[in-house]
Amino acid sequence: MKPHKHPEHTDNIWLALEIGNSRLHWALFIDETLYSAWDTDHLPESVIQHLAECQTLNDLLENIFPQGEFLTNTLPLCPLLVASVVPSQTAIWQIYPNTRVITLDQVSLKGVYPTLGIDRALALWGAGKTWGFPMLVIDAGTALTFTAADANECLVGGAILPGLGLQFATLGQQTGQLPLVEMQNFPSLPARFALNTTEAIQSGVVYTILAGIKDFIEAWLQLFADGKIAIKGGDRTLLLNYLQALYPEITAPLIVEQNLIFWGICKIIMGDSKEGIK
């Protein structure tokens, strides 16, 4: 997302960080407006320590934002809101001043279980509070997850399985004869009945994942005919293209939004009373 205006004359700028299994996902907000979102690789502790010593927001963004020069003002360091599924990284990032770690008890979903991932909870909360409940969120990331809540904002449940890249990597690394198939954007759907090993792996992984997504969507709509469905994650575009080719009828209602976790954080910290960051 490209910045759309300069954050001038505002006291309520805040930075969100989602620490994922593969990458860091960042968002810069002005009040409830998402100013910009971008990704970086995980950073070593020495770099995080350096960021903690930055004196201004500009200094910080110059180190983590690929186009940090868009900030023309010298702005003070702002709060950093962290949601993490990597505990070792969570501890390191608390070096940064004015850090607030978002935990499951801050998400107002009803009926959650203690080990529900904060990423799944926040994405569901962000989607539901933005587009309405009942809501099913499909996260096509390192893991492919399904997480749903009913009209009363109560967790219905979900499922977790390895994502595209992880399935390819597992077959290549945990078997003696199968090759490692690199995760890539195949220009079109692979042949269903393949005549070589590499394409057979592509077929097996891709078609079973697509069939699984279709099955979960159909089961969700049987439970809640008016239920909404949102999809996020790094493989979302590829999977949507494949689904459109195979099952176009189920892709039409899908809400495509990569920043659901950030919207979930935003809903929490702003609150219904619009009181701002605490």
From TrEMBL:
Q: Does the keyword ATP-binding apply?
A: yes
Gene field: coaX
Catalysed reactions, semicolon-separated: (R)-pantothenate + ATP = (R)-4'-phosphopantothenate + ADP + H(+)
Report the protein name in the record.
Answer: Type III pantothenate kinase
Q: Keywords assigned by UniProt?
A: ATP-binding, Coenzyme A biosynthesis, Cytoplasm, Kinase, Metal-binding, Nucleotide-binding, Potassium, Transferase
Known partners and oligomeric status: Homodimer.
Query: What EC number(s) does this enzyme carry?
Result: 2.7.1.33
Its subcellular locations are:
Cytoplasm
